[in-house]
């Protein structure tokens, strides 16, 4: 069993840190909003600290799951960042969905301190975190991966090393690119079904048995049909992720016309008040445009 810290107790981090306790690890948490760290410590019986540095001191592994690149820099680099508290030989694992650039930047600082680093963004949503069945896409060295994987197994059902530092984030970009087009397709299908006077739920029960089936269809069609958009992964986060992917695409020369278009559709969802709605809310925009 390991001594670990978990930094960032959001929708994802809170249950992930809880699974580490359930698997017998000794867990110390940090969260910017202290009340959440207190609530977590009360619920799970772990410790909490008031800076990332204090939480990271003396730990074998430090896990991070915060919002974006800047948040990640804040909690890992600098005087009160996790790296300042970590010892040589320990390992920092980042679960934030961030850029491959920031992963390389943090890896370089970690290496200068003889600390291991891997980028390890996750997929599976709030339910995946709560049920401990996330997919984890890792970039880093094999030996670091081999040490950290048994700990990550506490909240994941698939943990794979995809290449050097940054490869985890690049893989997550592929994941988000694939999701963007699928959600827009599903939203258009349901929108069309309503316009055609069909029973959308019945339609999906049939077509999901065939080639149109997808995770989004299986898990979101009922709530979309009912206009409920409070299922976890927020539009604001999706725009962050698509922005990261589009920036990377400009650099590596790939053409992502559909991703760019869906990113624009999400900006329209934000404009109608849907910044914190979940990503299936592309349908809300279509329904609003119906007039
Ligand atoms: N939700 C999902 O379904 C999902 C799925 C896959 C991947 N992700 C990714 O996982 C990451 C976390 O997502 P989430 O849904 O857990 O987000 P969230 O609920 O908004 O939580 C964000 C966490 O980061 C902390 N944080 C944000 N900015 C910070 C800063 N500047 N300094 C210190 N702490 C900061 C927040 O602290 P406070 O409590 O103080 O705000 C909170 O603990 C994101 O990168 C997201 O894209 C999310």
Tell me what portion of residues adopts beta-strand conformation.
Answer: 5-15%
The overall average pLDDT, rounded, is 97
What share of residues is helical? 40-55%
The radius of gyration computed from the alpha-carbon positions, rounded to a whole number of angstroms, is 20 Å
Structure annotation, total helices: 14
- Cofactors, ions and other ligands in the entry: NADP nicotinamide-adenine-dinucleotide phosphate
Helix/strand structural class: alpha/beta
Strand order of the largest sheet: 3-2-1-4-5-6
Major sheet details: 6 strands, parallel
Poorly predicted spans: none
**Helix/strand order, N-terminal first:** EHEHEHEHHEHEEHEHEHHHHHH
| Straight-line N-to-C gap | 58 Å
- Extended strand count: 9
Q: What is the topological layout?
A:
Elements: E1 3-7, H1 13-22, E2 26-30, H2 34-44, E3 47-48, H3 52-56, E4 61-64, H4 69-76, H5 82-85, E5 91-94, H6 100-112, E6 116-119, E7 122-123, H7 125-130, E8 134-139, H8 142-152, E9 156-163, H9 167-195, H10 200-207, H11 215-225, H12 235-252, H13 257-271, H14 282-290
Helix pairs in contact: 9-11, 9-12, 9-13, 9-14, 12-13
The structure holds NADP nicotinamide-adenine-dinucleotide phosphate (NAP).
NADP nicotinamide-adenine-dinucleotide phosphate binds next to helix 4, strand 7 and helix 7.
């Amino acid at each position: 069993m390991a001594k670990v810290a978990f930094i960032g107790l959001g929708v994802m981090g809170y249950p992930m840190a809880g699974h580490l306790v359930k698997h017998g690890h000794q867990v110390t948490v940090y969260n910017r909003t202290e009340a959440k760290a207190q609530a977590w410590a009360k619920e799970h019986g772990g410790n909490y600290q008031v800076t990332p540095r204090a939480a990271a001191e003396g730990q074998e592994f430090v896990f991070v799951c915060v919002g974006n690149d800047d948040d990640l820099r804040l909690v890992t680099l600098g005087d009160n960042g996790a790296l300042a508290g970590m010892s040589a030989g320990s390992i920092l694992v980042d679960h934030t969905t961030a850029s491959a650039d920031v992963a390389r930047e943090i890896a370089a600082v970690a290496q200068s301190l003889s600390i291991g680093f891997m980028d390890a963004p996750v997929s599976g949503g709030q339910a995946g975190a709560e049920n401990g069945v996330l997919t984890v896409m890792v970039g880093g060295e094999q030996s670091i991966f081999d040490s950290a994987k048994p700990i990550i197994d506490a909240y994941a059902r698939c943990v794979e090393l995809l290449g050097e530092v940054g490869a985890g984030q690049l893989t997550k970009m592929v994941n988000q690119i694939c999701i963007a087009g699928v959600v827009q397709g599903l939203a258009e299908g349901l929108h069309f079904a309503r316009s055609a006077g069909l029973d959308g739920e019945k339609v999906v029960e049939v077509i999901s048995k065939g080639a149109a089936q997808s995770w989004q269809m299986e898990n979101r069609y009922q709530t979309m049909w009912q206009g409920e958009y409070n299922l976890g992964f927020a539009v604001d986060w999706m725009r962050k992720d698509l922005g990261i992917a589009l920036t990377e695409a400009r650099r590596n020369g790939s053409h992502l016309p559909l991703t760019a278009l869906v990113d624009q559709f999400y900006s329209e969802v934000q404009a109608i008040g849907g910044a914190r709605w979940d990503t299936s809310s592309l349908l809300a925009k279509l329904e609003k445009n119906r007039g």
